[in-house]
Structure formats: structure tokens, C-alpha cells
Design brief:
single chain, HIT family, subunit A, alpha+beta, 20% helix, binds adenosine monophosphate, binds zinc ion
């Protein structure tokens, strides 16, 4: 998608602090971290959000999911972490390219959010 921020980061047109990459996904540090560890995992193929996942493209979301435990290990999140995917306006999504927040490095509240 030409005008998508995360597609541009995947393409290297906008810089990011990369923490993990494989053939299918890129993970980088959130510019506005809400916890000591705050990483975004994005598929290299554009999908708008979890609301656009279907049986045909579910593997794209799966690419991200398989990367999450690897990234958690790399980051030393041995005592747990939170994964969030905001969907649409009411869900608080600000970048319309599917992404999963990995939040951790401290004891998080039990009330959702960060
Ligand atoms: P969401 O609000 O769930 O769509 O998440 C988008 C996230 O992207 C926010 O937490 C932003 O802080 C983060 N963000 C926006 N621009 C950048 C960027 N250029 N590099 C890294 N993270 C970004
Ligand atoms: Zn995109």
C-alpha cells in the first residue's frame, strides 16, 4: 500500500529500530513506548487490521503470531507479557496496517490497555 506508514517501514523508506525480522514479518520498537518493552510486530504483506482477516489470508496474521514468542525470548520477557492488536477507530487503531503490540518488562495492570 503506497501510503501506509508500516508498509514504508517494511520497505525501509522510513527508519525503525528493528528487533526481529524474517521473511514474513518485521518487528521494531514503538516510538512512544508505554512500558519498558514495547515492540510492534507487523506482517510484510499489507492487511488493514484483524477485522480484515479471513480464512484465505489468516496465515498473514499467523506469521506475526509465530514471531511473538521468539521476540519475547530475545527481549528476555521470561515472566510474561501482553499482546494487543487494536482494531479500527473505536479500538484505538491509529495505523491501518495489521500489527501486534508486545508490551512488557514490568508488571502490567489487569485491566487491559497498557
Ligand atoms: P495503534 O494505535 O494500535 O494503531 O498503534 C500504532 C503504534 O505505532 C502507536 O503505538 C505509535 O506510537 C506507533 N508508531 C507510530 N509511528 C511510528 C514509527 N514511525 N515508528 C515506530 N512506531 C510508530
Ligand atoms: Zn501497510
Amino acid at each position: 500500500m503506497a501510503d501506509c506508514l508500516f508498509c514504508k517501514i517494511v520497505a525501509g523508506e522510513i527508519p525503525s529500530t528493528k528487533v526481529y525480522e524474517d521473511a514474513t514479518v518485521l518487528a521494531f520498537r514503538d516510538v512512544a513506548p508505554q512500558a519498558p518493552t514495547h515492540i510492534l510486530v507487523v506482517p510484510k504483506t499489507h492487511v488493514d487490521s484483524l477485522d480484515a482477516v479471513t480464512i484465505e489470508n489468516a496465515a498473514i496474521a499467523g506469521w506475526c503470531l509465530q514471531a511473538i514468542p521468539k521476540i519475547a525470548k530475545l527481549e528476555g520477557l521470561t515472566n510474561g507479557y501482553r499482546v494487543i492488536s487494536n482494531v479500527g477507530e473505536d479500538g484505538g487503531q491509529t495505523v491501518p496496517h495489521l500489527h501486534f503490540h508486545i508490551i512488557g518488562g514490568k508488571k502490567l495492570s489487569n485491566h487491559g490497555g497498557f
